[in-house]
Amino acid sequence: MGLARSGLACADLLYNLGAEVSITDNQDNEATRLNASRLKSKSINLELGKHTQEFIKNRDFMVVSPGVPNNALPIVWAEQFKIPIISEIELAWVLCAGTVIAITGTNGKTTVTTLIGKVLEAAGKNVFICGNISNPFSGEVNKIEADNFVALEVSSFQLERIQNFKPKIAVILNFSCNHLDRHKDIAEYLGIKKRIFMNQDSSDYLVLNYDDPVVRNFSKETKAQVVYFKEKENLNPNQSGVLAAASILGIDSELCFKVFREFKGIEHRLEFVTKINNVIFINDSKATTADSTIWALKNIPEPIILIAGGRHKGIDYKIIRDLAREKVKEAILIGEAAERIKDSLGGSLSIQRAITLKEAVQKAFSKASPGDCVLLSPMCSSFDMFQDFEERGKVFKEAVFNLARSQG
Question: Are 334 and 354 in contact (CB under 8 A)?
Fold first, then answer.
């Protein structure tokens, strides 16, 4: 169900294992047609631009892509027809010979997953970095051998449909309100996050953020061995989480510090784009929560022109208000959530609206002075205007580079 990146990888994997594969996606656009063309050489049934009951009937099981909500018609029909439904990471885990380190949390998953992968590589291990930041787990699993490691970024969407998924090490970074456009309430969202350790036993490890009281209390509900981490002087919480996971594997902390010093960051997460007339442009498109934007505001010393907005996920934007009053000169708002964000900020700073991201970049630059920073940190998902956060970040960078060329 779904023909984006994980759906394509899943279809390939299952077909190569000898399964009879069918794919349904209600989108019939350039992206789905491109992915469909990549399957042309294979006998795979495709249904694009619609869903039909006949296409779903009589299947042995359904693999659901992370972005598909539980009220999607194929899921409703599959449940009616008693067809088992699993997530892409469940399928890949069943077939994985290596050791899985799974990382979840409301914020920081991508950075920590990447850093754990780099630490393992520096320690001479063969590691596969999978999730939203890289190849889907199912796209790599046929290459993974018994002595290999997987650093796996795991979202709540992926955890909804697991059954036996059991990482050797599970890392939970933090918890705050998010995805209430998808989940019924914060209690449901919390329950889904906890599924990452539901199958772990005393031979496994659960790494928890001691500074987050919600996460700290998970220790009362797990059978795994608990390892805590805390923010320390000269170490942010993400780095402390990586150190904790590395310690379980016997990796020296000095090697971790070396990796931290050499780490250049990841695309779309506090990514330096360029400087125009001494105005810095930062791409933080991966920031889809208010907490992520708070992190960005705290870590940028320059006065900020903030570009934010997108599809609302039920989060509380008020939590950035005090920090925004201190750090943000002006906000340029885009997308469906623009009015909500404006109301939440409650007159604490000057706000403008923009119809497109390109227009937002131009307005932000017109308001910026030399020494300022124009920051894209949306606090929202991208799906009202873009295919995903990556496309949003690329459109932002393209608009910035076009602006730079126009300035000579």
Answer: yes
Walk across the sheet containing 279-283 and list its strands.
271-276, 279-283, 373-376, 304-308, 328-333, 350-353
pLDDT (tens digit per residue) in 315-374? 889 999 999 999 999 999 999 999 999 999 977 789 999 999 999 999 999 999 999 999
What the block records as the tokens of 251 is 């990796």
Nearest to 109 by CA among 260, 233, 252, 286: 286
- Residues pairing with 228 in the sheet: 208
Crossing angle of helices 88-95 and 5-16, rounded to 10°: 40
CB burial string 127-139: b at 16+ within 10 A, e below: bbbbbbbbbbbbb
Q: Report the C-alpha gap between 211 and 213 in whole angstroms.
A: 6
Those residues with Cβ within 8 angstroms of residue 68's Cβ, 6 or more apart along the chain or in another chain? 1, 2, 74, 75
Query: Which tokens hold the place of 328?
Result: 């943000």
For the chain, the domains span 5-83, 89-262, 271-406
What one-character DSSP code corresponds to residue 327? H
186 three-state secondary structure: helix
Q: CA-based diameter of the chain, in Å?
A: 64
CA distance 408 to 406: 5
- Which architecture characterizes domain 89-262 according to CATH? 3-Layer(aba) Sandwich (3.40)
Fold match, 5-83 / 271-406: no
Structure tokens at 88: 């892409």
Answer yes or no: is pLDDT of 178 > 70. no
In terms of pTM, does the model score above 0.85?
Answer: no
Q: Which element (helix H / strand E) includes 329?
A: strand 328-333
Q: What are phi and psi of 44, to 5 degrees?
A: -120, 130
Number of Cβ within a 10 Å radius of residue 103 = 30
Q: Which residues pair with 276 in a beta bridge?
A: 279
* 232-273 per-position pLDDT tens digit: 888 999 999 999 999 999 999 999 999 999 998 888 988 999
Fold of 271-406: Protein-Tyrosine Phosphatase; Chain A (3.90.190)
CA-to-CA distance for 332 and 230, rounded, in angstroms?
Answer: 35
Burial 388-405 (b: 16+ CB within 10 A, else e): bbbebbbbbbebbeebbe
Q: In the CATH hierarchy, which top-level class contains the domain 5-83?
A: alpha beta
Report d(CA 153, CA 301) in Å as an integer.
29
